[in-house]
Write a structure and sequence with these properties.
The chain has 147 residues and is an alpha+beta fold. The chain has one domain: 2-Layer Sandwich (Alpha-Beta Plaits). The protein has three helices and seven strands. It is globular, with a radius of gyration of 14 Å. The model has no long low-confidence stretch (mean pLDDT 89).
Length: 147
């Protein structure tokens, strides 16, 4: 019997260097290290939110399938970010970054740990996530997930 793959939505953003190239490199690594990307939004351009920067952001949302657990995906995302030059996560203090990858949804699960909150708590507060997500979202019931 074939195992059903986990479905996840990831948000990616960059506001340093060649932003689109940073995202494209991240997508290649996601495909090789996490799972197959089945959908991707168009690029969304926005100003920095939560901090002041002269560098605008490029964002994208993708849907992928994986056999990884949520924490395995998180750990792999952090490795991908480091491979692409990210030095540290923001921990609530936002700053310019080469690449940022967030888990937006994982199946239809609600996950609350010290390391991971899914659905991502700021999906609806951030237009640069909400707009590209709605462009590719298959399952609108995910929008109703709340803890």
């Amino acid at each position: 019997m074939e195992k059903k793959l986990n479905q996840l939505y990831l948000g990616l953003g960059s506001n340093l260097g060649n932003k689109i190239e940073n995202i494209e490199q991240a997508l290649i690594l996601i495909q090789s290290e996490i799972g197959i990307i089945s959908k991707r939004s168009t690029y969304y351009y926005s100003q920095a939110q939560g901090f002041v920067s002269s560098n605008d952001f490029v964002n994208i949302v993708v849907k992928a399938a994986t056999d990884f657990s949520p924490l395995d995906v998180l750990n792999t995302i952090e490795r991908v970010e480091k491979k692409l030059g990210r030095t540290s996560k923001s921990n609530g203090i936002y700053k310019d970054r080469l690449i940022d990858i967030d888990i937006l949804y994982f199946n239809n699960e609600i996950i609350r740990t010290d390391f991971l909150i899914v659905p991502h708590p700021f999906i609806f507060d951030r237009e640069f996530v909400r707009v590209p997500l709605l462009e590719i979202l298959d399952d609108l019931t995910l929008l109703e997930l709340k803890d």
